[in-house]
Specification:
This is Acetyltransferase, GNAT family. It comes from Lysobacter enzymogenes. GO terms for molecular function: N-acetyltransferase activity. The protein has a single domain, classed as Gcn5-related N-acetyltransferase (GNAT) (Aminopeptidase, 3-Layer(aba) Sandwich). By secondary structure, it is an alpha+beta fold. The N and C termini lie far apart (29 Å). It has 4 helices and 6 strands, in the order βββαβαβααβ. Helix content is 28%, strand content 35%.
Amino acid sequence: MAELDGALLGVVAVQACGDIGLLRSLTVDANGRGRGLGQALVERAEAHARARGLLRLVLLTETAAAFFSRRGYVPAERGDMPAQIQSTAQFRSLCPATASCWSKHLGPP
């Protein structure tokens, strides 16, 4: 979470699926945009994922492909994701089929 003067400005979550994490629900309030909060939230999520032993993060997005590309995420084929990722609610039904899939390697194999 990102807060300023007690106001919630941003959130992000990582859902562990084996040794892969699903980066989800990254949201920054309009009042918090342009301050680096999104980047800080993603960096914290990546550090949290590494500390938990996750080797890779994947995500779906319709609107933030350029944002994630600038942070080292690369396009991935949705159908190539492991079963434990494809079975999540985000992949099955919450995110539209038009959402692009992105992936980032976090550490040693």
